[in-house]
Amino acid sequence: MTPLLQVQDIAKFYGNHIGCEAVSFDLFPGEVMGIVGESGSGKSTLLSCLAGHLDPDKGAVLFDTRADGLKDTVKMSEPERRMLGRTDWAFVHQHARDGLRMNISAGGNVGERLMAVGERHYGDIRAKAVDWLGRVEISENRIDDRPTTFSGGMQQRLQIARNLVTGPRLVFMDEPTGGLDVSVQARLLDLLRNLVREMGLSAIIVTHDLAVVRLLADRLMVMKDGHVVETGLTDQVLDDPQHAYTQLLVSSVLQV
Amino acid sequence: MIRVENVSKSFTLHNQGAAVIPVMRGASLSVAAGECVALTGASGAGKSTLMRMIYGNYLVDEGEIHIGGTDVATAQPREILQLRHDTLGYVSQFLRVVPRVPALEIVAGPLLAVGTPHDQAIERARHLLQRLNIPERLWSLSPTTFSGGEQQRVNIARGFAHIYPAMLLDEPTASLDVKNRETVLQLIEEAKSRGAAIIGIFHDEAARQRVCEREIDVTKFTSGLN
Question: Which terminus of chain B is more exposed, N or C, with fewer CB under 10 A?
Fold first, then answer.
């Protein structure tokens, strides 16, 4: 099996400060990888570099495109990368308002992404929007409401619907459950897990919540000060951590 | 089916003065298809540690652990995941699930993971929950609110849903009543007769006598280390 994504020696510097450095890994189709670390560990910088939101200073991000096979997305032209961002890639932001258009309707938010890939038939677009709102448990009678009238959890679910409607193969998620109530988090986690399984998605999830990665991620990468200090199977890293920092992280979780 | 060779393990506690605690040395055993082997030894002797290494949950310092065609000690994470999907089952002592997911879906989960059609997977899950005496009115509820015994039975049902060629059982009969204990022992016997290689930890002496061909005292792998 060829990896869907090959990350090779990625580095990003902010002046003298290291954003992230020497990060390499392969992600295979259907795999979910978690990236954990405390604030400032470089996990969000890394995610931005991988998703093409930031230009890395070094390294390559090879993606197995449908048309041309492996291509380095760092060297890709901007239009090509934008196309990828609308079709095979999806990005779920921590704050739903960064990933939504707040002044158009929920249905419009989902439909816009479909139109970006060439759908033009209003009836089809609306039917797909209804279907996806249903999948993320937003009732059909809210389709014409703006996301500003939605709760935080609903906004986050709408963002997920907007992202997944075009059937991407790789989803980047930045703290997808951050800032939500635990009960809303549980619902979102359940939803994400089912979507990942049903659609055979690969995903990279950045979070500081170890419980989230235990439930969602197959593999785990632990970052500190811009460097990867440990990687492995999620349950192995959490239950038998090898690096001093991972041991500290795991032992710091409050038990409920 | 399962072959453990010369496995050693120690824990290094970096945040407690970098203390190195050797927990196992030279552990070797093998289990053939259709055979059930019990790990014995006092509490803390290392039974669960050995089992967790076989499952790939703990890393191995030295040695090899062969299951099917995979060496768990050196396999890549995705090879271990594949092994856990289709070959190696594990019934732990505790149920760990996503809140909100109904018991029926949890039990069917391992079958769905290997691509069994949804209705067949649910049918098998219903059958197992019935055999383990989980009342039908609970099937559509999340087990997070179930009693301890009910949670354990859901866990067992999930562990036996897919027919694994190799299984690890950590105290599968602990705290079960007579009737459910009998069902679990029957499930183990059925798995054996289908050719599963099983490693189990049983504090229940009578259960061990009934389903296990052999016993391996892990104390011989761990004594003199601490």
Answer: C
Which amino acid would we find at residue B208?
A: R
Token code pair at residue B167:
């299984």
In terms of phi and psi (left: phi > 0; alpha: psi -120 to 50; beta: otherwise), the region of A95 is beta
Listed residues A111, A134, A167: the one ending a domain? A167
Nearest residue, CB atoms, B15 vs list A28, A189, A244: A244
Torsion of CA B97, A184, A231, B68, to 10 degrees: 30
Give how far A171 is from chain B: nearest CA, Å. Answer: 19
Asked whether residue A142 carries a pLDDT value surpassing 90, the answer given is yes
Architecture of domain B1-87+167-174+198-204+213-226: 3-Layer(aba) Sandwich (3.40)
Mutation pick from B100, B111, B112, B142 vs chain A, by most beta carbons of A within 10 Å, is: B100
Indicate if A159 and A112 belong to the same structural domain: yes
Interchain proximity A239–B58, CB inside 8 Å: yes
CB-CB under 8 Å, B98 with A218: no
Mean pLDDT of chain A: 91
Among candidates B12, B14, B98 on the partner chain, residue whose Cβ is nearest the Cβ of A186: B98
ipTM of the complex: 0.90
Per-residue pLDDT tens over the stretch B142-199: 998 898 889 999 999 999 999 999 999 999 998 889 999 999 999 999 999 999 999 9
Whole-prediction pTM:
0.90
Determine whether the interchain pair A218/B78 forms a contact, defined as Cβ–Cβ distance below 8 Å.
yes
What token pair was written down for B182?
Answer: 């009998």
